[in-house]
Design a protein that fits this description.
The protein has 211 residues and is of the alpha/beta class. 37% of the residues lie in helices and 28% in strands. It is built from 6 helices and 9 strands. The strands form 2 sheets. The protein has a 7-stranded mixed beta sheet. A two-stranded antiparallel sheet has the order 6-7. Strand 2, helix 4 and strand 3 form a beta-alpha-beta unit. Helix 1 packs parallel to helix 4.
């Protein structure tokens, strides 16, 4: 699959489901205690690194962005899908959102004090993941945290429908934590913590924390 093909498929799919996605997931954080813990830890790590602006890359309709803002963080949400960003701006007009690709972030070098990629690498093919991680490394300040959440396993699913029955065409990658950790280390980070058993029904997940 070419770079243009997976980006076009992902953008078009999430443009199609954006409004339904927001409606279905609007209250998904209400009882997500482990998400709260991870996001609070992210905030603490940013503070330990000296504080500053943070990026929520692959922010979708902005529910995590809004949660981070509620913790007092200076956060920018970035997503490939203009439709998702339109809904994010509609639902959270007080926050900052931008359309952009994680493989070519429109941010200066050493700009952010933290970067969150919360289940947003799951549609990025293997050959493009190191490109995205290189961009994460470029825009992060030295010593600042990177938090990555993803599905675990070793398979690829083609998702053709979702979020209210709308048509989609996105590949969903399930990856062993060791593989993702290796890519993160190769990009110039040190993995400091790893939570392998992050249960997201119906699929398991993991969270890696690096600097």
């Amino acid at each position: 699959m070419t770079a243009d093909a997976w980006m076009i498929d992902t953008r078009t799919s999430y443009d199609t489901v954006a409004k339904s996605y927001a409606d279905l997931l609007r209250d998904s954080l209400d009882e997500a205690h482990y998400d709260w813990a991870m996001l609070s830890l992210f905030k603490n790590l940013v503070e330990d690194a000296g504080n500053g602006p943070v990026a929520d890359v692959g922010c979708g309709t902005g529910r995590i962005t809004a949660y981070l803002a509620g913790l007092g963080m200076d956060v920018l949400g970035i997503d490939l899908s203009p439709g998702m960003i339109d809904v994010a701006r509609r639902d959270h007009p007080e926050l900052r959102f931008s359309v952009g690709s994680m493989t070519s972030l429109d941010l200066p070098d050493d700009h952010v004090a933290g970067l969150l990629a919360w289940w947003s690498l799951i549609h990025v093919p293997d050959e493009a993941v190191p490109v995205a991680l290189g961009e994460f490394r470029r825009v992060l300040r030295a010593g600042s945290p990177l938090v990555v959440g993803f599905f675990t396993g070793d398979q690829t699913r083609l998702k053709t429908e979702g979020y209210g029955g709308h048509p989609m065409r996105v590949h969903v990658y399930h990856r062993p934590p060791e593989r993702v950790a290796g890519w993160i280390e190769d990009a110039g980070f040190t993995v400091e913590a790893r939570l392998d058993q992050y249960n997201l029904q119906p699929f398991p997940g993991a969270v890696l924390i690096a600097r």
